[in-house]
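Q: How would the structure tokens look for this protein?
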Amino acid sequence: MATNSFTIAIDGPAAAGKGTISKGVAAHFGFAHLDTGLLYRAVGRRTLEGMDPLAAAQALTADELEQGDLRTAEIAQAASKVAVIPEVRAALVDFQRAFARRAGGAVLDGRDIGTVICPDAEVKLFVTASAEVRAERRFLELSAKGADITRDQVLADVRERDARDAERITAPMKPADDAILLDTSDLSIEDALSRAIAAIAQKRPAA
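A: Here is the predicted structure in token form.
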């Protein structure tokens, strides 16, 4: 374990706000941030190009997380499909754990950070919201990018991903037993971030 390490694990379903909250938390505390979903999106993108999922996971480099737009609906679905493969998840564990214990503190967000990747994280949050609220957020995001998609399609996609993430055999998405639950359904992003920071501050030793 690196000295001066402090790990914050933030989990939750798609479009609950965990990515935005994670970035805000990292900026507030001066910690490094890793959106672990990008790992699976990068692997998913490679599979769309015809690469074997496990080979893509084993060959993944940090540079690939910065290449191109990994946030398309097509790549999101591909990521969700490769994420249910136990061998793919295992191949990406070391990358995530090493990042989590870097000196200076780290924030990781994903689906299984508090339960599998960093069960000993100093703080665990589970950020959620209703499927309808999350679908509306994602619809507005995709529409702004020019995607030709309907609200019903996005809601169906959100529910499909929720089921796949929650029901997979390996590392299903669920709150850690000691996670702090944060429902953002009726919160502005400012209020959600403020509550997250306050919860973390209570568990962080004074500098």
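The chain has one domain: 7-202.

The beta strands are 7-11, 32-35, 106-110, 123-128, 180-183.

Upvote if useful.
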